[in-house]
Automatic annotation (TrEMBL):
Name used for this protein in its record: Glycoside hydrolase family 108 protein
Keyword set includes Secreted: no
Residues annotated as domain Peptidoglycan binding: 116-178
Domain TtsA-like Glycoside hydrolase family per the UniProt entry, residue ranges: 33-112
This protein's UniProt keywords: Hydrolase
GO molecular function, one term: hydrolase activity
Organism: Chromobacterium aquaticum
Length: 192
């Protein structure tokens, strides 16, 4: 009987792993949909230090991923792969409650992953090094997710106000954070 039980346990582990991957993928898709609402389609504002973007992906990032076409033609599927590979996965969003995962992902897209992680670490009261590790994980998961979501948006607002580009982009940045706080309230039930 132990062999059958071992086979059952392995099958159950494979099933659970597949189920969890599906849940994580669902949260990624939801977070990405929100980010894309913030980022819009094509943009090439002369005051934007990010330069030319499509789906929120800068030309420099697209080129690092092998894209050689006109930015207006960047396909959404490539943008999704870039978002997952360069932002969602390095920020360990799959390890976080869904609402907090979105907030960190959005911060990563807008400020860069290292800065986003430093903001999260600051809000969680852990050593700020910009890296996801066991101490950051423990500190973040020990805090109420809703509080961290709100604190991150406040910290981001303070950051935006201090940037020279606030004159040109401040209204949009603040609107983004206001919407993110609405998402935080909406997501609060998913995090407890």
């Amino acid at each position: 009987m132990p062999v059958l039980l071992a086979g059952f346990e392995i099958s159950l582990m494979i099933y659970v792993a597949g189920f969890l991957k599906g849940v994580v993928d669902m949260y990624f898709e939801q977070a990405l949909e929100r980010v894309l609402k913030h980022e819009g389609g094509y943009s090439h504002h002369p005051q934007d230090p990010g330069g030319e973007t499509r789906w929120g992906i800068s030309a420099a990032v697209a080129r690092r991923h092998g894209y050689r076409g006109a930015m207006q033609d960047l396909e959404l599927e490539l943008a999704k792969r870039i978002y997952r590979q360069d932002y969602w996965q390095p920020l360990a969003c799959a390890e976080l409650p869904p609402g907090l995962a979105f907030q960190l992902f959005d911060a990563g897209v807008n400020h860069g992953p290292g800065t986003a992680m430093r903001v999260l670490q600051q809000c969680a009261g852990v050593a700020v090094d910009g890296l996801w590790g066991p101490l950051t994980r423990a500190a973040v998961l020990a805090e109420p997710a809703f509080e961290l979501m709100i604190m991150m948006n406040v910290a981001r607002m303070e950051r935006y106000i201090a940037l020279p580009g606030f004159v040109h982009f401040g209204r949009g940045w603040i609107a983004r954070l206001v919407q993110n706080m609405r998402y935080a309230r909406e997501d609060a039930c998913l995090n407890y």
